[in-house]
């Protein structure tokens, strides 16, 4: 199946975005040989900085296989940004609406047409204190199992040193290095042709996230935590801690009132 043409808008965006990226970041890009030359596929990428979509798009643009990202629908509505998002073929995500599943249908259609769809399986910037990938959402696994396309795990590191997660000001000096390592396709064949239950999607997602994490371990030269950071579990634990503290405070207040009497 032929690859998607890069097109005017992608080339125009590259003319605008590449010069500042080249100035701000050195590049250490590896694993380009694992990006398929033909046919539809998914890249599953970790997310640790607001600027890493631009830097990662630079990496993949240079492979000749431009990615289609899933992005918030509000970015498509008006102005130059909206025109660029539509012109480059990005996929709008309509959250909490009747159109919420349209992004997955569009992703499946894009893969079936021989295009690349780039997923951030974490769904947002990592909240892991040390920048490791969190638990993932199941969208990438769902598309992969429905299309049986290759899933390329990609780890990146360095944009988070230029602009740390949730920071407002970049740390320009010393000049940072954007490191990317694309791995071989994740083996999901054992999940094929099975009922697509929540448990199956969760297990396939864990396999994808583990592959991304292994790539990041190689980049960083460190071992990731055995258990990935889970925002949902952390929220539950935080709620329990808050309730326990409230209970202790209430007990202390009752005791003090009793002593006062």
UniProtKB/TrEMBL annotation:
Coiled coil: none
Biased composition (Polar residues): 243-255
Claim: Nucleotidyltransferase is one of the keywords in the record: no
Domain spans labelled Phospholipid/glycerol acyltransferase: 41-159
One function term, GO molecular function aspect: acyltransferase activity
UniProt entry tagged with the keyword Acyltransferase: yes
Region span, Disordered: 219-261
SUPFAM superfamilies: Glycerol-3-phosphate (1)-acyltransferase
Keywords, alphabetical: Acyltransferase, Transferase
UniProt feature, compositional bias: Basic and acidic residues: 219-240
Name by which UniProt lists this protein: 1-acyl-sn-glycerol-3-phosphate acyltransferase
